[in-house]
């Protein structure tokens, strides 16, 4: 897995290449841990993420102490169809999950 990060002021864009799954979750959490302390927003760019499973949901919605200081806002953009299906399913199973609130580019509506 390759992970690129781009810091823009207090926002960082993280773009994983390859699957977002249980095996790659530690590397993605390491990307969060290595962020500068003044970063207050993380945007996940998923255009090159070939697959995402429940580990991706944990990354987007589950705050682990090892992820670094919070509160940080989390966003996601450039969803692939498989990512959208997973997020829509998560929204149905967990109605309190603010899936629409993390979408930064309207890509969730493309799947509706």
Automatic annotation (TrEMBL):
InterPro entries from the UniProt entry: STAS_dom, STAS_dom_sf
Highest taxon of the lineage: Bacteria
Gene3D superfamilies attached to this UniProt entry: STAS domain (3.30.750.24)
Occurrences of domain STAS (ranges): 1-60
Name of the protein: STAS domain-containing protein
